[in-house]
Amino acid sequence: MHLSKETPASGSNHTTGVNTQNTAAIVNDLAASINTPATDYVRDLAKAGAARLLTKASIFASLHAPHTLWTRRMGTGAAALLVRLEWPGVLCVYDPRTGDKLATSAPGQPETLQ
């Protein structure tokens, strides 16, 4: 591309085809501010879709997972207790002789008593 020199009526030299202002920075700033609400909207849609997917997966898992996920004896002899991790992340302690439930945790919080 050949740039030609023009002499405007004001007397200053200006190369045609060359932008002397910093419009690229202005355009980038405007593009960021224009796209921010759209980007947030798309991000919110993606989060909502992930939440729906997680809800469906939770229902699916509750239907197909075994009720007792994990069982172990804690202790030895007559003082032994049965510890079970049950769906949905509830830790329970049972007396193996009587079958009584001695303690139950809050779902997903094994150290918090329900």
What does this structure look like?
- There is one protein chain.
- This protein is 37% helix and 29% strand.
- The chain has 114 residues and is of the alpha+beta class.
- It folds into two domains: 14-63; 66-113, no CATH class.
- A five-stranded antiparallel beta sheet has the order 3-4-5-6-7, with no helix packed on it. Strands 1-2 form a two-stranded antiparallel sheet.
- A hairpin with a 6-residue loop joins strand 5 and strand 6 (101-106).
- The model has no long low-confidence stretch (mean pLDDT 78).
Beta-strand fraction estimate:
25-35%
Provide the helix percentage: 25-40%
In total, the number of strands is 7
Please tell me the overall pLDDT. Answer: 78
How many domains in all? 2
**Termini, distance in Å?**
77 Å
Rg calc: 34 Å
Largest sheet: 5 strands, antiparallel
The geometry reads as elongated
Class by helix and strand content? Answer: alpha+beta
With strands numbered from the N-terminus, the spatial order across the biggest sheet is 3-4-5-6-7
H/E series, N to C? Answer: EEHEEEEE
Furnish the topology, listing elements before pairings.
Elements: E1 5-6, E2 14-15, H1 23-64, E3 68-74, E4 81-86, E5 90-94, E6 101-106, E7 109-113
Antiparallel strand pairs: 1-2, 3-4, 4-5, 5-6, 6-7
Compact overview of the structure:
With 114 residues, this protein is of the alpha+beta class. Helices cover 37% and strands 29% of the residues.
